[in-house]
Design a protein that fits this description.
Helices cover 29% and strands 29% of the residues. With 177 residues, the protein is of the alpha+beta class. A hairpin with a 2-residue loop joins strand 2 and strand 3.
């Protein structure tokens, strides 16, 4: 029996177009079902901005050497409060436990992390299940029109009213108090 191996590999600048397409394919698959979305999501410009931003690092998730997903992380070396910007598994690999194994690899890569943080839209039940029941995150805030986050990072920007950008859960996982 062959052992399944998960690894992380840095996304190089030349890989960004491929990474973007893979991320959009993964995110768009559930949105197509839910909202009959026809355009790629998130927008290419949003992904490019994340990939080029200072302090952010992108990884492919490799499954037995094949690109099976990816992650974009914001690592704060001073506070050790890190943010998961994007995390995805290609729909072809869903339901095989790759997401949890990949997340464990991310945690191993950044053992100094005190808190991991992320947000996900209110309607993404699969994500909510994954982060709370599999990875050990706790929902710490539900941002919506009745509750605007005190943290400016989580306040909707002008025009963000579609596809859960104005209603989402904020999660935290405390690693080291």
């Amino acid at each position: 029996m062959t052992e399944n191996h998960i690894a992380l590999s840095l996304v190089l600048p030349k890989d960004r177009p491929d990474f973007t397409i893979r991320l959009q394919r993964a995110f768009s698959s559930s949105l197509k079902e839910k909202f009959n979305l026809s355009q790629p999501f998130p927008p290419t410009e949003e992904i490019e901005a994340a990939l080029q931003a200072k302090g952010k690092t992108a990884y492919y998730i490799l499954y037995n050497g094949e690109k099976a997903g990816g992650a974009v992380l914001e690592i704060n070396g001073e506070t050790h409060r890190n943010f998961l910007e994007f995390f995805f598994i290609d729909p072809l690999y869903h339901g095989q436990g790759l997401g949890l194994e990949a997340w464990k690899e991310v945690e191993k890569l950044y053992p100094q992390t005190k808190v991991w943080e992320l947000v996900t839209p209110y309607f993404e039940k699969r994500n909510i299940h994954f982060y709370t029941n599999k990875c050990g995150f706790k929902i710490v805030e539900f941002v919506n029109k009745h509750h605007i986050s005190r943290d400016s990072r989580y306040r909707p920007q002008e025009g963000e009213t579609a596809l859960g950008q104005d209603e989402f859960f904020r999660f935290e996982k405390i690693m080291h108090p």
